């Protein structure tokens, strides 16, 4: 089962929910894997403090000139992303704009353009007890987060896979939702939170992934029940504000270990998510 934990905006508690669910399921004896696909700001490791046992560099292919350019300009004309410039027999590639589609290589009739790997980030693998841990970090200055996000999110894993998605509704978030059984959308009871939750629900539905909602800091803010009902996505959990959760996280402790009420809430959310995913399948 593949469960993507996402949010319309940052700072809603997405990583708290995803790491807690992953630990809960792993401790129940289920083969589980937590993937932090928020490659621009991965912070799942701060919550889980995994023992890392493998690190590899991630590459994406970008065009490189290997031979004599005939200055026909076809590569430049064909690139929809303005990522390649052909000037008087010289070729200039802007890798931060390149989408690795390979169209320029196919367009080059003399065959002097080739795709060559370019490093853009790092993927790490490790363990937290019986829980498998994977995360990715985009190199500083890199702009193509979606490519690494896809690479991290598609790392082969068995059992229950919990993907901590990047916040928002842009390409990196979409990349994590492909093939998901269910999306757990974490929100907060504020006008901004609900607005962005609406966008996230639309994103999930347009990708054919059933969304369910977790309201964090549910006792702060105004009455949002009517707004939540309007979205038509089931609310599978509410997490009341509890400063002990923030204190535990800041001290590097696992919140479900030190705040019993939160552990009970997570257990309830886990059960509701499982049921919703099974219902969606049937
Ligand atoms: S691989 Fe695609 S995006 Fe990159 S430069 Fe070539 S045509 Fe443009
Ligand atoms: S398509 Fe090939 S030959 Fe033509 S400008 Fe580009 S690199 Fe040069």
In short:
The chain has 282 residues and is of the alpha/beta class.
3D structure, described in words:
With 282 residues, the protein is an alpha/beta fold. It folds into two domains: 2-58 and 121-281, P-loop containing nucleotide triphosphate hydrolases (Rossmann fold, 3-Layer(aba) Sandwich), CATH 3.40.50.300; 67-111, Alpha-Beta Plaits (2-Layer Sandwich), CATH 3.30.70. It is 36% helix and 28% strand. Helix 1 (14-27) crosses helix 11 (260-281). The longest helix is centred in the C-terminal third of the chain and has 22 residues, at 260-281. The two termini are 14 Å apart. Bound molecules: iron/sulfur cluster (2 copies). One iron/sulfur cluster is lined by residues 63, 78-79, 81, 83-84, 98-104.
């Amino acid at each position: 089962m593949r469960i993507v934990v996402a949010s319309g905006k940052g700072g809603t508690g997405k990583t708290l929910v995803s790491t807690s669910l992953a630990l809960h399921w792993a401790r129940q004896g289920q083969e589980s894997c937590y993937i932090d696909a928020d490659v621009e700001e991965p912070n799942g490791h701060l919550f889980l403090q995994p023992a890392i046992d493998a690190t590899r560099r991630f590459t994406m292919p970008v065009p490189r000139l290997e031979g004599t350019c005939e200055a026909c300009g076809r590569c430049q004309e064909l690139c929809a992303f303005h990522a390649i410039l052909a000037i008087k027999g010289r070729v200039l590639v802007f890798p931060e704009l390149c989408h690795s589609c390979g169209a320029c290589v196919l367009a080059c009739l003399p065959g002097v353009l080739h795709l060559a790997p370019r490093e853009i980030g790092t993927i790490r693998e490790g363990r937290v007890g019986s829980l498998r841990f994977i995360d990715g970090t985009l190199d500083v200055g890199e702009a193509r987060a979606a490519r690494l996000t896809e690479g991290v999110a598609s790392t082969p894993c068995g059992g229950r896979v919990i993907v901590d998605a990047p916040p928002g509704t842009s390409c990196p978030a979409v990349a994590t939702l492909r093939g998901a059984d269910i999306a757990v959308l974490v929100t907060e009871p504020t006008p901004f939170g609900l607005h962005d939750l609406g966008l996230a629900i639309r994103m999930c539905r347009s990708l054919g992934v059933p969304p369910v909602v977790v309201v964090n800091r549910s006792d702060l803010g105004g009455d949002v029940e009517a707004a939540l009902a309007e979205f038509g996505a089931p609310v599978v959990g509410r997490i009341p504000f509890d400063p002990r959760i923030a204190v535990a996280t800041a001290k590097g402790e696992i919140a479900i270990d030190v705040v019993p009420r939160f552990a009970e809430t997570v257990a309830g959310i886990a059960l509701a998510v499982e049921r919703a995913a099974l219902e969606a399948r049937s």
